[in-house]
Amino acid sequence: MLSRAADSLYWSARYIERADFxxxxxxxxxxxxALPSSYAGVSAEWESAVAxxxxxxxxxxxxxxxxxxSVLQFLAFDYDNPSSIVSCIEAARSNSRAVRTALTSxxxxxxxxxxxxxxxxxxxxxxHEATSRFLDWVMRTSLAxxxxxxxxxxxxDAYWFLRLGMAIExxxxxxxxxxxxxxxxxxxxxxxGGSLDYFQWTTILREVSALTAYxxxxxxxxxxxxxxxxxxxxxxxxxxxxxxxxVITSNLDHLxxxxxxxxxxxxxxxxxxxxxxxxxxxxxxxxGLHEFITGFLRDNVRLSATVAEQYLx
Amino acid sequence: MPAFNEMHEPGVAGxxxxxxxxVYARLSAWLESAPPVLLAARRRQAEHFFRRIGITFAVYxxxxxxxxxxxxxxxxxxxxxxxxxxxxxxxxxxxRALNAFLLDVYGKRECVAAGIIPEDLILQNPxxxxxxQGLRPPHDVFVHLAGIDLVRTGPDEFYVLEDNARTPxxxxxxxxxxxxxxxxxxxxFSEHRIAPVETYTDALLDTLRSVSPRAGDxxxxxxxxxxxPFNSAFYEHSFLADKxxxxxxxxxxxxxxxxxxxxxxxxxxxxxxxxxRRLDDAFIDPLCFRPDSILGVPxxxxxxxxxxxxxxxxxxxxxxxxxxxxxxxPELIRFYxxxxxxxxxxxxxxxxxxxxxxxxxxxxxxxxxxxxAGSGGYGMLVGPTSTHDEIxxxxxKLIANPATFIAQPTLALSTCPTFTxxxxxxxxxxxxxxxxxxxxxxxxxxxxxxxxxxxxxSLVVNSSQGGGTKDxxxxxx
Lengths: 313, 477
Fold this sequence. Notes:
The complex is a heterodimer of chains A (about 325) and B (about 475).
Chain A (H helix, E strand, L loop, with lengths): L2 H32 L2 H4 L4 H8 L3 H8 L4 H10 L7 H14 L6 H16 L7 H25 L4 H29 L8 H14 L3 H8 L5 H9 L8 H19 L4 H15 L2 H7 L1 H24 L1
Chain B lengths: L24 H9 L2 H26 L10 E9 H25 L4 H4 L5 H5 L21 E3 L1 E6 L2 E6 L8 H14 L1 H6 L1 E2 L5 H11 L11 E4 L8 H11 L2 E3 L4 E4 L2 E6 L2 E4 L2 E4 L22 H6 L4 E3 L10 H4 L2 H9 L6 E2 L3 E2 L3 H9 L4 E5 L9 E2 L5 H13 L4 E5 L5 E6 L2 E10 L1 E4 L4 E3 L4 E5 L13 E10 L1
């Protein structure tokens, strides 16, 4: 298929995934900030939401202090912020439009309908209930996009590029969340204990919709090292780095098979996956959680560039 | 003189009720028996269908989406098989002559040597392309697609109004009009034997494949080159690419290496053989034409000149769209085919000729005056429907620059019954059949796009001027 078409599919999926992640982060932050401060402490949650979204610099240039209202406005509704939810949906839709015929009508109509709905949106960040409803709608939009692609698209390169974009973006999001919050998971904090940490850990899990998953997998109270294990190494957990790389390698393998050759993208991705597979969480902590995460983020960005180089331009 | 209503036998003075023509008998009976509420309901349904398709138009157009929802009339226009057979022969003859003419224009110019057409009309034509001089496109085909506009004034009187040999559009309406009609009026389709139009996309693909520059290649790569989503016809481009099963490419998707054209794919560069381009000459190659064009492909003309890629249509075909050149078509047809034109031209005064100019100036209020290079119904004077001031303003323009105008009598274009706010009423129509010329043969889909002037009495059918469309049936008895 045309490189430009593959590029548009890849980015449609990335933007949808990013919108979904932002909605989950904001949803968790709203929840945490609603807790009495004796439990949650003076919440740095809004500041950390901005950092997790990777837009701290642009945010502070525009708003200064991170408050609930300013962060919700900037991350959810601000068209001037290219990484806001509304910008992501708009970008996903314009990428989809450029390859309309490569998507099934169900998938295209879903993203187009979401965009149409945005045109009617009148955001009011002071209205908690409306904002929650909006975030909920964003999450359902991404589910509908994924679901219709999964249910209706031919299993060919168009589908594989879509899945690849989703998984690379998702790995990036999970890693950035860990990067911002790694200090909460470090073992030396454990003795501190107390409700503050507990709520922080469960918030991390909530941000990737993994609180229930945690209990099913470990059948234990929430422990920071196991939170890290779940989000980094556990392949059962669909947002973990390992699970994302399983999706990435398998879709790259499909492409290699269809085109009759593999290249640097396949090699890089499988190297990253086997590194994750060989790791034990204790080792990761010994070597430094922060270093591990920043290393992973770097590798993931490099893979994205390699994929672009190999297929998309 | 009253216009010919295609549903009725030409009126006899004093006759009270007109006689329905044989070919319209069933439709007429059906229209009469159908309760008005049913017709109104079907009309609303048609609007609904088109709005759904129209959503697809609208999302592309953003702000100016509205103007691209071209009105659709539910009453079909019918042409009998014998009538069509005659038209088909005339269209094929015309397409062959157009190709022979353009080959000659960029070759030996025998038509000039033989005194058929003045040389300056060719060499000073703004559409004449110096780059094409001496260049023979693959298989000597210039006009792979022509949208030859026909008008009718009586049972047997058809005229060619324009040849449209550059990048004619509108074929997606022909296909979608039929699609909607079949959904809305299945009973009419079971009562009539209507020639299908869905074969158009296969015919187009066969035509494009036949002109591949690679001799003996059984699987040439065809692409459709669009200016992009912001072009007003983008919907048609993506619709056709989808139906043809070919890639819809923009200029940036193509590149030229060593005089071959490639497209950038996820599987590496892929050689392109045939480009169905919906991009005007001026934009296709910034190295050759407009250097500021970012829509084209640098080096494309070089690859074309080397014979490594086919452009459909060829570059420089606009020469034959010039309305002064058009006026010579009957002579050119005779010159190249040895036959008389099977479909007549509209009589045309060339204002560049002093005698003709004098007569035109004398009769301005009754004539239609057009710019030689104009299209789309813009920049023309329709004498009978213009005010005195408009006519005098135009007169000044004409005197200042006579060579850039031609004039024609105001034809009483035929009408077809059309659904209006006050029920069925006659409205003026024209017909654009789509004529495909390949290396092997000429292919013509029965019928074409009927355009209708929805305003009572109006003769201007262009969609940019408030025209609508109808499904067009070629009826086997």
